[in-house]
Amino acid sequence: MSDIPRKAVQRTAKLASLPLGVAGRVVGGWGKRLAGRSSDEVSAEVSAKTAEQLFAVLGQLKGGAMKFGQALSVFEAAVPDELAEPYREALTKLQTAAPPMPSRTVHRVLAEQLGSGWAKRFRSFDDVPAASASIGQVHRAVWHDGRDVAVKVQYPGADEALETDLKQLLRFSRVIQAMMPGAEVKPLLEELRDRYLEELDYRTEADNQREFARGFADDEHVLVPRVVASSPKVMVTEWTDGTPLSKIIRDGSREQRDLAGQLLSEFHFSAPSRSGLLHADPHPGNFMLGGDGRLRVLDFGAVARLPDGLPRPLGLMTRLALEGRSADLEELLRTEGFIRPGTELHAEDVLNYLAPFVEPLRTETFHFTRRWLQQQAERVGDLRSPDMQTGRSLNLPPQYLLVHRVTLGATGILCQLDAKVQARAIVSRWQPGFAD
Predict the structure, then answer these.
(1) Domains of the chain: which residue ranges?
(2) CB-based burial of residue 251 (10 Å sphere; 0-12 exposed, 13-18 middle, 19+ buried)?
């Protein structure tokens, strides 16, 4: 396959095969139960085959379909283990793997973007991709001055594929919702669509990466590779090595898990203050732990511009929830638009809903676990729970949606890592309004 399948009909048919395939396997499962197979055995088989199809379809289509799979991969920590386990490995593959482009296609894109003499800009270029992602793949090379570099090449047709996928995924939001209990999928998809469309011009990503690199220049905890060259569909950056967080999640030591979690938290909360930007694509494939103990951060296509740092009201809300000041919390939520005018809500109910979310800040060190995140998802997703009704009455203003989604995604990674993190000190230092 030289290009991404571009035709809307072709891609829509493949995406439609996901819910249709699930339905077909469920029907087949009923037949196997009638034939005497146990429900647990049949359910496990159906889930495993569904996971295989999820990876095959989203991975082959790349574009927005694969990007959504990557976004799903950080939320699986909130899903009960018996439901999430078959999907976990398939979703993790989507963080770093996809069918590669043929070398002739790669060379064609390089010639279009860097000129017919593109090969002279490199001492060497490895045609075998070192990594593949949703709208491009990465090749290792040596720049003409001797530097080891990473060359990201965009898939031909990625722009059309991305727009088509995101449009169709919005139509399938109800089906996808069933895979993510306790999460509002449609607003997430809409916000992801807006961010991902920004990633199609690598010159914008290069500018973002330069700003991050300046903000973290010579930092002892975080390394952002410097940009070497860029064009609309090709970007060259300095090469960096490390252990991907996906590998640490799978089999990392306790020391690696805690260090990766601590560094990721520090990066998430400090980046807006240090660079004026928020890294808006948190999934384990975008982070590595280097041999020098520093966090390597990759992929800056999706960012939020926060020149004043993280929103100050969020820090104030966190502090009020932590201190149990329900009346002050309700007043602030109404002022900031989290409670719409005319909505009847009791201050204590709002506090009871939000208090568990700030639990990681009640102690010096907090252990982020899948079980803790599952408990939060179960609490807000239980139709019989008062917290569910309170949560449905709250509003998330558009200006907070991206920060909320990214923070939730980063928290999902911490829970996948099973990391012990000094979260209170990090939030106190970097979140405006919290330490007031």
Answers:
(1) 241-436
(2) exposed
